[in-house]
Design goal:
27% strand; 7-stranded antiparallel sheet; 186 residues; alpha+beta; disordered N terminus
Length: 186
């Protein structure tokens, strides 16, 4: 499950829940980094990830006009995670690779490359920190922490697979996916 190991420890399995509504998408003001990264971005939806009652993060999805979830991998979008507890960047990177591998096979060499790239750009986070990832179709992904650039991973397949953690039909968190895409077209 999405980031479950971060909350419960490696190997744990438990139900998770996404919460939608005003609580999960509170603060719908446009983050400043969107002005450059996704100037026409609008908020499509948001939700809260909870695991065994632990609040993990609030997520919000931003995309341009005409966004279609069935072709998310070919469109620019921004996923914003506002953390409700602290996590080590290395643990976030490892869980991201696990989720990408859950969706489809990833060779060990490629997983190692992507893991190293994620560890390079993803810092440890504390409660209240906000990471935004921007999908750049055909290029990869760029990341910000609290509005400050962290770096980018220039690999189009990485970008598709990383954002698929939340947006692909086979995500481990379909309730959160539905909340994120609530304002999108089919």
């Amino acid at each position: 499950m999405l980031l479950l190991a971060l909350v419960m420890g490696a190997g744990a399995a438990a139900p998770a829940a996404a919460q939608t509504g005003a609580e999960a998408v509170a603060g719908s003001a446009r983050p400043p980094e969107l002005l450059d990264a996704l100037p026409q971005g609008r908020l499509l939806g948001g939700g809260r990830l909870r695991v065994f009652g632990f609040q993990v993060y609030d997520a919000r999805l931003w995309a341009g006009p005409g966004f279609r979830v069935d072709s998310f991998a070919s469109q620019a979008l921004a996923l914003e995670l506002s953390y409700l507890r602290a996590f080590e960047g290395q643990a976030i990177a490892e869980r991201s690779i696990t989720e990408m591998r859950r969706a489809a096979p990833v060779s060990d060499d490629l997983a190692d490359q992507w893991s190293a790239a994620l560890r390079r750009v993803l810092p440890d986070v504390k409660k209240g920190d906000r990471i935004m990832g921007v999908h750049r179709p055909g290029v990869g992904a760029a990341f910000w922490l609290n509005g400050k650039p962290l770096g980018e991973i220039r690999d189009a397949e990485f970008g598709r697979r990383f954002f698929g953690i939340w947006l692909a039909p086979g995500t481990s968190e379909p309730g959160l996916r539905n909340a994120l895409i609530a304002g999108a077209g089919p």
